[in-house]
Each structure stands twice: as structure tokens, then as C-alpha cells.
Amino acid sequence: MTRLLAATALGLIASSAWAQDQTTISFLHKYPEPESMAFFNAAVEAYEAQNPDIDIVMEAVADEPYKDKIRVLMASDQVPDIFFSWSGEFGRKFARDGRTYDLTDALAGPEWEGRFSEAALDPLRFEGRQFGVPTNVNAKYMVYSTEIFAENGIEVPQTFDEFLAILQTLEDAGVTPIAYGNQGPWAATHYIGDLFAKYVPNDVRIADYQLLAAPEDLYTHPGYVQALQVYKDLGDAGFFNRGANALPHAAARGSFLAGRAAMMYLELVEFYMIPGSDLDTSGWSFFAIPPVEGAEGNQNLLTGAPEGFLLSADTEVAEEALAFINFLTSPDMAADYVRTTGMTSAAIGSVTTETASEEVVAGLERLEEADGMALWLDTDMDTQSANVILAAGQGLLSDDATPEGVMADVRQTALEVQASR
Question: Which of 84, 178, 182, 386 can bridge 244 by disulfide, Cβ–Cβ 3.0-4.6 Å?
């Protein structure tokens, strides 16, 4: 018994010493879906097996709760070593406040060379310095039923006027033109953000979003009101399904996949949900919301954004954390990520017909043809101004808000935020 106790004690001492030699990396992301967790759990397990001195403590929080959680962690100085961020103002704010580790020199190393496109890297920069590593690229397309289009003699529109005409044709035929779930206010910002990019000159819009415009010019371009009016008109004309404000995006998507609407504005990363559905059986394709003739914005921008992982400025394990991100985004892991999750990795060469559907590959090719990206509006504007738009997405459809009133509120909010910086 004495020998057994002694042996047990020695084992505990050895185990304790081994644990103390381990480096712990805290890792927070916003991908709790089963497909994503299957990848991340396997990746963490594989990395820890290759690196027994590393212990990765991972937590996943869904999209909307993540925004609140990371802000709370920032405020309480409990920032994880690695954390997710959207590009645009959502991530720029962390960089501007000195909360992110500067990755510029690290990503210039030979092991990262040629891994990401400039289009994926640039939205994760602030004042020329890289604050994030891109993991996904995403874009928004109008997905449509080829069967419903054919039954109604409709072809893919080349201009916005043609788009409006086919919406009216479908409405007249008793077909719901667009499936839309606007219960989550982010859904409206995808329409509104795309329209802002079409109606407002790119340099003006970016200066407004980043609060760099002179106070007397901030959010004064008439294109903003025009864009909001177009969005409101889509609802007033009955081009969305009834009760859009009360319907979750996922429920609207389910209705669309069941063939109960002609179109739906979907993200590229949602394409993987289509195979096996009624829509897949009847046939489907996609197009970008077409250009608005005569409008002053850039008509060849696609709404979407890269997403990425950031390191805390206060991390004590920067080298180890960056090595893990390097592993996650390596060519083999990136290809496995695409196959497992249906997401579109930012790593060049990872999305092919061997890892993704032909439609996903085509969606990325269309993105490469664009002049750039109009980043998700609710993460590209400053938070307080974006909140005005988030609320307006429902208010405009329910006649509780007007385009002019919304933009007056946006301008006033933005002026206050600008003055406080």
C-alpha cells in the first residue's frame, strides 16, 4: 500500500509538472454550428496532438450574442488570446483602441506568402497595419428558382429597372417574388448596405462610415435617402413575403428552399444548404443585385466581407497563438474547412470543385470580378450609427420610419460620435 501511495504521489507530481509546462491559448469564435464545431474540434485535437505542450481552450458563441460578449470581455480586460472579428469598423475599433496585436510583420514572413488575396487582407487593416488574419470570404447574391423564372418567361435582369420589372411580373402572377425574414435586424442592413453602395460615391460613403468627413458634409449625400426609399418601395410594393418583420431569416430560407418564393438574398456560405432541397430539385442559380443606371455609387461592388481572427494586444502567448492560426489556415486545413463546413475559406486555392459545389466556386469567381466589397453595413459603420439603421430596417417596412427621418437620425448620431473621438 505504501509503495502504491508513493507511486501515485509521484504520478501526480509528474502530471502537475507536465501541466505547468503547457501553454494555454484561449480561443473565442462565433461558429457554434455542428458542421463548424466538427472542424474546429478536430483541428484543436490534431494541433494539440502535434504540440503536446499546447492547451487550447475554445469557446463558440452564436453570431448575435458574440457581438455583446466580445464587447463585455473588452470592457473587463478579459480578452481571449485569439478572438473572432468581422472586418470593417467592428474590427477597426479594436485596433484603433489598441486592443489588437500588430500582425503586419508576422504575416510578411515566408510561411504566409501567397496565402491570402489583397482583397481579403485589406479590410482587416487599420492605418496600414494588419490587425487580423482573414479566415473566410463571403458575398451576398440573389438566388433564384430557374423553374419559376422559366414558367414566367423571366430572364436574369441586367439592370435594376429590369429587376424591378421581374418582381412586378412575379407579383402579378401570384408568386412571392422574394422570401425575406427581417426579424433579426441585420438582414435589412444587407439590402440597405448594397443600395448605399450603389447610390453614394464610394469615397463619400467610406468617409462617412469611418467618420472622416467634415462635420458639415457627414451623411448629407442625397443617395442615402434615395437608397432607403428604394428599400421601402420593395416592401410597399409587396415584393417581400407577408410578415417579413416577424419572420426569422432561417424560416424564410426554409420557405424559399421549399419552393414557395422565386428568390431570396442569400450569402455564399448558405449555398451548401441548397443541395437536397426542393429548390435543388427544380433548379437554381444566382445573380448579383444589378446596377442602378444613373446612380452615383460604384455599381460593381458586391456586398459581403472577409472575417478573421485577431490576437489580443495583451496576449502573453502571441507566438504560440499565431502558430495555431497558421495551422488553421494552412492549405490542407483550409481545404478541409471548406469540405466540412460549407464555408468559403480565405486561403487561396482552398475552394475548388473538389471541396465545394460548382455554384460556390462560381460565386467566388464572380466576387473576384467585382471592383471590391461593400462590407456588411452593421459592422462597417460605427456601432451607434449602425444601430439607427438596424432599427430602421423594420421601421421602414412598417411605415414607422421615413428615409429622411432615418438619415437625419444617422447624421445626428454620427456627429455625436465623431465629436467624442
Answer: 182
